[in-house]
Amino acid sequence: MNFKKFPVVIFIVLALLLVSTTSAFARPELAEFTIQNRSGYTSYIYMNGAGGEFYYLTVPAGTSKTFTVERVAYTYTLNTCNGASADDSIDLTNGGRLVVPATCEMPSPFDQTLFARPQLARFTVNNLSDQTAYLYMYGAGGQYYYFAVAAGTSMTYTVDRAAYTYDQRSCGVLSEDNTVNLANGGSVDIAACPRLVGFSVYNFTDNTLFFTMTGPQTVSFSLDSDTFRFLTVEPGLYDASYSGCEDKVEREGFVWPVYNDWVWLTCP
Predict the structure, then answer these.
(1) From 162's CA, which of 143, 150, 195, 210 has a CA 20 to 30 Å away?
(2) 213 vs 261: CA distance, rounded Å
(3) How far apart, in whole angstroms, are the C-alpha atoms of residue 145 and residue 170?
(4) What are the angstrom distances between the C-alpha of 86 and each of 83, 106, 119, 197?
(5) 8-state DSSP, 244
(6) Per-residue pLDDT reduced to its tens digit, 228-245
(7) SS3 label, residue 217
(8) Residues 244, 224: contact at Cβ < 8 Å?
(9) Among 33, 31, 15, 11, which Cα is nearest to 23's?
(10) Cα–Cα distance between 62 and 41 in angstroms, integer?
């Protein structure tokens, strides 16, 4: 055996082992990129790398998907949350992931800014009444909205994120200078229209009486001797009082359940 060639053989074997080991553990050309979409909307991402790499990825609502992409840094546009959009960048040389939060507003727990806070908020009007309701809304920044919501329906609108003063016409009554803060969205409920009942007050005296009834609504009037007044009022419990008897004493402290009835007023 030629021992002079032995070091050369050892060198060649070591070189082959080194090449083999390097090939076995070479860094993969592609990296894993996971998008976790916790929101209730499909997310779309358009990614562009500096070397011309391009990816268009979609992730359905409430799902997580992992993609293989080239190991570079990307600029991207993310569209999600029913219209929210933002441009940003992400370095995927070692892989990574994005999280679309369920609220569509909170920052990612992985410190990756996903998208700007949407400028519009969702505003729902629930009309529980049996008549069309109308809302006239005024924002501090000059915003103005007019909504008509049919009886017994709910409607959702998108409005500027702001606090509003609004006038509401429902059940034949105009209610003014109400307020609602829609910085984070919100809703307004239109109450059911009151059911009116007939109610009669009879003056069974020889004097003109002055009558007041306070409860779900307030009613005041004078009533001549031996006459009656028929009222259409909201049903419920009322506190009542009247004056005008000859003894000048005001009769008060009466509690009347008003559900279609008569009341007779008398003097001692």
Answers:
(1) 150
(2) 14
(3) 17
(4) 10, 14, 12, 58
(5) -
(6) 999 888 888 899 999 999
(7) coil
(8) no
(9) 15
(10) 8
